[in-house]
Design goal:
Elements: H1 20-28, H2 34-52, E1 55-58, H3 60-68, E2 79-83, H4 110-117, E3 121-126, E4 138-139, E5 143-144, E6 146-147, E7 150-154, H5 160-167, E8 173-178, H6 184-190, E9 193-196, H7 206-209, E10 217-222, H8 225-238, E11 259-262, H9 273-288, E12 292-295, H10 304-321, H11 323-327, H12 338-349, H13 354-374, E13 377-381, H14 399-409, H15 414-419, E14 423-430, E15 436-442, H16 448-461
Parallel strand pairs: 2-3, 11-12, 11-13
Antiparallel strand pairs: 1-3, 4-5, 6-7, 8-10, 9-10, 9-14, 13-15, 14-15
Length: 469
């Protein structure tokens, strides 16, 4: 097997090999200053970004200013990045596209306001695939975001830049969001923890809240379960949704033994042989830990994949047809990639089917509730096959090729976006080529605590590989 082209920035500087909670503890103990931590993160980002292509916009001056007088919050002084599809005051929001001239947001959006209230210090914004439509960020002009475990492979998407930087050690935690798997997929291929929360769990920007089916959820990618748990604990202190159970302060595995539904057949195709075997190994680990695992089918009707694709495509159509009104003279429709254009065409040709698709997709929330009356947790692979090489999901290829490959790879993740239920990807497996392979756990609406407690247990039982190992 040829040597892997790994890229990372872990060193003996102020960040060391610490996760975000570890950085907090170091700062609170006086073993490092916020300025030292922020400077280390900036140096690390610059060391790896040339090979990874993960950064969309730098604002190191702001970060250094905040380091001199950090705001309050548990994560006060911990460096981070924000994905370039939410507004951060003073930074441009480009959504991963060349279709208009960059504009600077006048103020923080609702999510960024909540995010920074935890004390996190933004270094800038990270790259995503155009509008977040593809599961691989491969920009025709800027090039791809590369996987730090092997730079010939994609870092996934759409939260590609955030995930690549966290995996490579530039920052310990970064913002991500997920409309079809975009927290969980890049977490899976970069060896990270990625929790897509329940619909409404965190504050969201207005654009995300106004969708007919609210498929997008914001969150974070991290290297440890405790970082993810700590983030949701702190976010809950700032923004508390009353319609669902609190997550609270979770620091250890739960005691309850769970009934777990195993599925490797997906929505459009089954997982390939290697990924199926790795998922079954995870199921056996869960059984060894005392849980009950039962094989099941996905709780969706046969119409679900086509309905989801049409709804997803309708978002592209709305962006394309409304671009001139939103962005004025700087709008250049021809600058879109083939995937965005193809999705818009698909929606336009099938608009008569869209109302029925929306009705059926909304109905899946009921189906999920019935499913989780029988089972505590679902287990699937996060993606159906190992991480593809750069070019496999090239957005400039013909639309039919791209969409077939895309739907086959991400067949497991869209369900929770539609149902609004939470799901977490954990780096519990490694392929024969040495790349991380995520395993996905889902649960009922508002039951993130179940997933986090089980994730703690799995992390202790099977600690995941480190990029430096």
């Amino acid at each position: 097997m040829p040597p892997m082209s790994r890229v990372h920035a872990f060193s003996d500087d102020a960040l060391g090999d610490l996760d975000a909670v570890g950085v907090v503890e170091r700062l609170q103990a006086g073993e490092a200053s916020v300025q030292e931590v922020v400077d280390a993160a900036i140096a690390r980002t610059e060391a790896v970004n040339g090979e990874l292509g993960a950064v969309a916009y730098r604002d190191y001056g702001r970060a250094r200013n905040e380091a001199r007088n950090p705001r309050g919050g548990y994560f006060a002084g911990v460096p981070t990045f924000v994905k370039d599809n939410v507004d951060v005051g003073g930074m441009p929001t480009m959504q991963g596209t060349d279709a208009w001239t960059p504009y600077v947001a006048k103020k923080d959006g609702d999510f960024a306001r909540m995010y920074f209230a935890t004390g996190l210090v933004p270094l800038g914004k990270t790259r995503l695939s155009e509008y977040g439509f593809s599961a691989s960020c491969e920009h025709p002009r800027l090039g791809p975001v590369r996987n730090p475990w092997h730079t010939d492979h994609t870092a996934g998407a759409s939260s590609a830049g955030s995930s690549a930087l966290v995996a490579a050690g530039a920052v310990p935690i970064a913002h991500a969001n997920d409309g079809g798997g975009s927290i969980r997929i890049p977490a899976a291929v970069n060896g990270l923890v990625g929790l897509k929360p329940s619909r409404g769990r965190l504050a969201q920007d207005a654009l995300m809240r106004q969708q007919p089916v609210r498929i997008v959820a914001d969150g974070v990618v991290t290297r440890s379960v405790r970082d993810t748990a700590a983030f949701y604990r702190e976010a809950e202190r700032i923004y508390r949704p009353l319609e669902m159970p609190p997550i609270g302060d979770l620091t250890r595995p739960g005691r309850k033994r769970l009934r777990i539904a195993l599925n490797t057949t997906g929505l459009t195709r089954g997982a390939d042989a290697e990924v199926t075997r790795l998922t079954e190994e995870t199921a056996r680990l869960l059984e060894e830990l005392g849980h009950t695992v039962v094989e099941t089918d996905a709780p969706v009707p046969p119409s679900f994949p086509d309905d989801f694709l049409l709804y997803w495509a309708s978002l592209a159509l709305a962006l394309v047809t409304g671009g001139r009104a939103s962005h004025g003279r700087s709008w250049v429709r021809a600058n879109h990639d083939a995937l965005t254009d193809g999705l818009a065409r698909h929606a336009r040709r099938n608009l008569h089917r869209l109302p029925g698709a929306i009705v059926r997709l909304r109905r899946s929330t009921r189906d999920a509730a019935l499913f989780f009356d029988k089972y505590d947790v679902s287990l699937t692979p996060t993606v159906a096959s190992p991480t593809p090489r750069i070019g496999h999901l090239d957005p400039t290829a013909d639309y039919e090729t791209i969409i077939e490959r895309l739907m086959d790879w991400v067949t497991f993740t869209p369900l929770q976006n539609v149902t609004g239920t939470p799901a977490i990807s954990l780096p519990l497996a490694t392929t024969a080529t040495g790349l991380p392979q995520g395993m996905m756990l889902g649960s009922g609406f508002g039951h993130e605590a179940v997933l986090l407690e089980l994730s703690y247990e799995l992390e202790q039982a099977r600690p995941w590989a480190r990029i430096t190992g």
